[in-house]
Amino acid sequence: MAKARKPKNNDDAKLDHPGAVVRHQKLCLSVDLPNRRIYGYTELEIAVPDIGIVGLHAENLGISSVLVDGEPSEYEYYPHYQNLDNERRWSSVMSPASAAGVAGSLYLSALDRELVPNLLINCCKGFKVENESQDQLVVENASQSSGEVKQNVKLVRIEYWVDKAETGIHFEDNILHTDNQIRRARCWFPCMDENSQQCCYDLEFTVAHDLVAVSTGKLLYQVLSKDDPPRKTYVYRLDVPVSAWWISLVVGPLEIFPDPQNCLISHMCLPAYKSKLQNTVGFFYSAFSSHYEEYLGAKFPFGSYKQIFIAPEMTVSSSSLGASMSIFSSQVLHDENIIDKTIDTRIRLAYALARQWFGVYIIPSGPDDEWLLDGLAGFLTDSYIKKYLGNNEARYRRFKANCAVCKADDGGATTLSSSGSCKDLYGTQSLGLYGKIRSWKSVAVLQMLEKQMGPESFCKMLQTIVARGLDATQPSRTLSTKEFRHFANKVGNLERPFLKEFFPRWVGSCGCPVLRMGFSYNKRKNMVELAVLRSCTAKPDVEPPNTNADSEAREAEVGWPGMMSIRVNELDGMYDHPILPMAGDSWQLLEIQCHSKLAARRFLKPKKGSRADGSDDNGDAAVDARSSSESPLLWIRADPEMEYIAEIHFNQPVQMWVNQLEKDKDVVAQAQAIATLEALPECSFAIVNALNNFLCDSKVFWRVRIEAAFALATTASEDTDWAGLLHLVKFYKGRRFDANIGLPKPNDFRDIPEYFVLEAIPHAVAMVRGADGKSPREAVEFVLQLLKTILLLSSLLKRIDRLLQFDRLMPSYNGILTVSCIRTLTQIALKFSVLIPLDRICNLIKPFRNLKSLWQVRVEASRALLDLEFQYKGLNAALSLFIEFLEEEPSLRGQTKLGMHAMRLCQMRGPTDSADDIQSITLVAFLRMLEGRMAFNNVFLRHYLFCILQIFAGRPPTLYGVPRDKTFHTGDPEARSEQENIVLSFAAEAEPLETPVNITNQSPEDVAIIEVPKEADSISSSHELKKPVVKIKVKHSTATSKGDEMGNQSAAEKSQGKNNGPDRAASSSVSVDAPQRNFTEAVSISNHNLEEVNSCQNPGSRVTASIGSAKLACEGDDLGKELQCTADSGNVLVHPRLLGDSDLGADALKYASLRSLSAATVNDSSLALGDSPHRKEKKAKSDKDKKRKREDRKGHKEDSEYLERKRLKKEKKRKEKELAKLLNNEPSKTSMELPSRSKGPGVKEPEFKSVTLQAKTNEVGSSNMLVTKVEARAETSEASNAPRFRIKIKNKPLNR
C-alpha cells in the first residue's frame, strides 16, 4: 500500500494562526412543542487564544447568561440580520443592470456577514495556568495535536432559549425538526458554525413522554422523569468529530421500524405512513451492508444509522443530512401498488447513505475540494445502481448526465476546483442548476479516472482513503484534490504526466470538447479516412479561473489529455482504434485500416417495375443500400465507452444509423441513433419502420424504447401519412385495450418495463403536430377515448371537473390527479383563449391555493396562475403576482418551488424582448425581498431571487464573476460602527493598542488615504488583497506665473511629506489608496462632513485631498462626467473599512479591522502606524541617502557649477518661504489658497493642465484594467476661497 503524502493538518494551521478551537460541546435542551419553544444550555470546551476573546455564531437566540469556568462573564450579542428599509437606498435602482449590481452587493455582504461571529465572550478574567485536570482533558481528546496542550482551555456555558423559530429549526403541529441549510445551525444552538471547526458532541433532549427524540450519534439511554406529566430525556453521544452543520434533531410521535436484517439501521415515520415505510425500505440492507461496506472494505463509521420521514411541506428540500441520520420527505414513500417512484426513491436513499461516507465522515480539506467528496458519493451511488438496478440503467443515466454537462459547461461557474469558483462563493456553488451540473460533472470526471486505472484499482484507492480515516492511531479524515491525485498515481498506477494534464484540464478549468466528424471510405486502400474538427463548449472570452502562470495551466488550455477511441463495426466484426488525439491541432485527418473485404460485385438484372436509373420507389433506401454495398462498414462510433465528457456530432449515412439502432446492444449507441434519426430534416418510411420495430422489441431497455416512441411522434407528418402516429396508436391498443368492448383494461404491474413504456405512449401521441402546429384528428380522438369523453370542449371541461371531484373523495398518490387536471386547465386556457375567458379558468384554479390543500396541489395552482399571467400580461405582471404568492406561501418547500418557477419564466423571455418591461418598482420589491427575513430563513429562495435579478440584466444565474466591491452598503454607518466598537472594546481589554486610535462615524466613501508613490504597499491590515492605488500626476504649464508655479510646487511637496529642495521637475504626484471597487459600476462619493474628516489639523501639517461630488462613469453613463477637487490641509484619518475585511492571520488581529489608524506626523514621509516596520525601513533608507549625499558634497566643494546650483537652490527656498509666510499672514485665505491675481496686460489666463489618473487594481478574476485620463482646467472664482479643478473623466478599457 502506498504511503500518502502528509496532509496539511487543520490543527497545524491553527497553530500558525492561533484562534479559538472547540474541543467538545454538550447540548442540553428541553422541547415545548405546544408553545413552539426550546430552552436549555450548551457547554463548550474551548481553547481560548491569547487575545482572550471567543467568537461564536448565534442567531435568533435569547441568551440568559454566559459562564466561563463557572463564573459570570461579559459578553456581547448582536444579530446579523437587520431590517433597514429606507427609500433613499433604492434611488439608484432604475434599470435591470443597476438592480443586478445592487443584488450582487446585497448578496455578498449578507454572506460575508454570516462568516463573522456575533456572540463575543470575554474569557480574559480568571486566567490561570492549566491545572492537572485540564491537562488530563487535553490528553483524552485524540483529535488534539501536541502543540495545543499548552493552550488555555475554558469551559463556556451558555443558557438560552428559542421562541417560534423560523429557520434552522422548525415547528409543525406536533413535529420539531432541523434542516442543514448553509450556516443555519447557529439558529438553534450557539456554536462555531464553520466547516473547519469540528468536535465531538454530547446531546440530551427532554420531551414529552409520548414523543420520540432522534438525533445524531448513538443513543446511550432514556430517562423518564417523575414530573406530572412525566417527561422523557434521550441521551446521545457522537464520538466522531463533526462540524455543527451535521447536528440534526427530530422530535415527534414517530413510529420506529428496526431493519429486520441489521439492528444498526432504524427507519422512522409518522404513524400514517408506516405501511408505506415497510414497503419502501425493504431493499436498504442491500445498499448498506451488501454493497457499500463490502465495496469500501470497512464498517459504517458512525455505528448506527437512522432514516426519518416527515411530511413534505415541513422540509426545505427533499432530503436533509446529518451525522449518522437523514431526514426525508414522506413524498418518497410508496406502497406496493405505486411502482413509479421505486427507482428514484432507492437512488435517493442510496445517495444519502453514500454521503455519510464521503461528505460527513470523510470531509474536504477546503472549499476547492468539495467537488471531490460530492463526486465520490455520486460514484458510490452509481456503483450501487450498476449492481442492483442493472448496467443499462447506470450507463443511460451517465449518458444523459454527460449531455447536460456539455450543454451547461460554458463558463467558470462549472469549474470544479479553483479559488474563483469555490472559495469566494460562500458555498452557493452547490445551489441551483449549476450545483446539479457541478455534481454530475464531478461524478463523470471520477468515472473517467476509473476507466483509465481500471475498476479494481479505483476500488482499492477508495478503500485506502476510508481506511486512512478509520485508523485509530492517527486518523486523517480530510481529503484534498492534491492527495487524491497522489493516490491516483501510487495506488491507481496512473502516470504523473497524464495526471499533470488531466486535473488542470478537467478539474481546474471549464469546458468540454466538441467534436464534429465525417468520413470517407477509400475502396482502393480499403481504408477509412476520418476528418475531425475539435472545439470547446466554453465561450472564447471566458478566462480559465485558474489564472496562475504555471505550466499546468498553460498545458490545460491546449486540449484534453489522452487519445479517443474510434470503434468501427465491419462485416467481419468490431474493431477499436484509439488513434484520435485530443490535444494539438484542432483539425485532424486520420486513416483507419479496415479488416473486412468486399466480395466481387455481382451484376443483377433490373427488377420489374424499377426506374431507368436502377432505383425503386423507396429512393432513400436504395441509396443507403447502394452505399453499404460499396464498403464493408456497418456503422462507426466515437468514444463508445464514454471515456470523455464530450459532445460528438458524427456524420454517416442514414442506413448506418439504422444499423446502429438495430444491431448495437449498447443503450448509449441506441439512444444516439434515435436522437440522430429524429433530428433528420426528412424522414423516410425506412426510418419510421426501424423506430417502430425497436419500440415493439420487448428485449430492449425500456428507457430507450420510450425515446423511440417520442421519436415516432416527432417524425409523424403528412409526408409519411402519419405513419408514426398510427404505429403508436396500434401499439397501445394492441396491449392495453380490451378487444371485446374497445376500452382500456386495468393496469398490469407484472411487467414493469412494459408498464412504463405504455404509460409514455399517450404523452407521445399528444405531441404529434401537423404543419399548421395543430394535433391531427386521429391523435385527438385517441386521447379523448382514453378520457372517456367526446370531441366537445364543454364535455372535456365536465370530465375534468368530474376527475377533480373524484380526487377530493379518494385522494390520489401525492395529489397527482388534481395536479394533472390543473395543468390541463392551464393548457386549455392558453390554446382556447378566444372561446374561454381567462377569468373563468383562473377562478377554477384559485380555490386550489387554499392552505388546506396538499402543498403539491397548492404549488401547482400557483404555477398555473403565474403561467397564465405571463402569457397574457407579460413578465412584469407575472413577477408582481409571484411576490404576492410568495408572501402567502407558508411552507419553505413551496417558496423554493415558486422561486424556481419564477426563474424559469425569466429565462423563457426571448432575446428580442426588451429589459425595460421590468418596472423599477418590481426591481426594488425583489431587492427588498432579497435582504428580507424570508430570504434569510430560506437560503434556497434567497439564491433564486439573486439569480432572477441577474437574469434580468442578461447575466448568468450564479455568484461566480460578481465583483467583490462594496459599492452598495446595506446598513447605517452608525449602526455598523456600534457593532464594531463592541468588538473593539473587548479587544482593548485583552491587548492595549500601541498607537493612538481615532474612531469616526464616517462612511467609507468619506475618507481618503494619501500615500507617496513608489513606496511600500499601501497601509492595510489585510495580507490577501491590495487596495487599488490611484495616482494623480499634475504637469504645470509654462504659461503660468512664477508665483503660481512656486505655490503649487510647494503644496505638492508638502502633500508628499518632502522637504523643500531643488526643483528637479515641474510636476507633482499624489497617490490615493482608495477602497477597492469595480469601475464598471457607478460609485458615488459624498463630500459631507469634511470638517470631521480633517478635524485634526495642525499649522504646517501636510496637505490632504478630499474629493467631492465625484462619480466614476460606467459603461452606461456619459463619458463627460465632471469631477471637482478641493484641496484642504490637515492630518488624514484612515477608516477601518478601507483596510479590508479579510482575515488578518492572527486571532489577536481578527477584529482589528474595527480599529482606526491615526496618521503620521508632518515630518514623516509616509503614513505608518507608530514605529511600524515600513517606517523604520524608510527612515533607515533616508539616513543612508543623506550619508551618501554628504559624501558626494565633499567632492564638489571646489566645483564652481555645483556652488552656483547650490546658491540658486537656497535662493529658491528663501522665495518659497517668503511666499508661504505671505499666505499664512492672510486670515481670509485658506492654507492652500494662492494669492489673487488681477488681470493685467502682462498676465495671461490660466491654461489647461494635463492630469493623468491611473487606477491600478488587483481584483481577482479581473480581465481588463481601466485607465482613466483626466483633463483639468484651473478656474478662478470670487465666491470660492479654494482653487478648483474641473476634471473630465474618460473611460478607456485596456486589455491585459
UniProtKB/TrEMBL annotation:
Residues 1037-1059 have a biased composition (Polar residues). It comes from the Eukaryota. Gene3D superfamilies: Neutral Protease Domain 2, tricorn interacting facor f3 domain. Residues 510-653 form the Transcription initiation factor TFIID subunit 2 Ig-like domain. Residues 291-468 form the Peptidase M1 membrane alanine aminopeptidase domain. Keywords: Nucleus, Transcription, Transcription regulation. It is found in: Nucleus. Residues 1192-1205 have a biased composition (Basic and acidic residues). InterPro entries: Aminopeptidase_N-like_N_sf, ARM-type_fold, Ig-like_TAF2, Peptidase_M1_dom, Peptidase_M4/M1_CTD_sf, TAF2, TPR_TAF2_C. Residues 1030-1075, 1166-1248 are annotated as: Disordered. Transmembrane segments: none annotated. PANTHER family: TRANSCRIPTION INITIATION FACTOR TFIID (PTHR15137), TRANSCRIPTION INITIATION FACTOR TFIID SUBUNIT 2 (PTHR15137:SF9). Belongs to the TAF2 family. This is Transcription initiation factor TFIID subunit 2. It comes from Rhodamnia argentea.
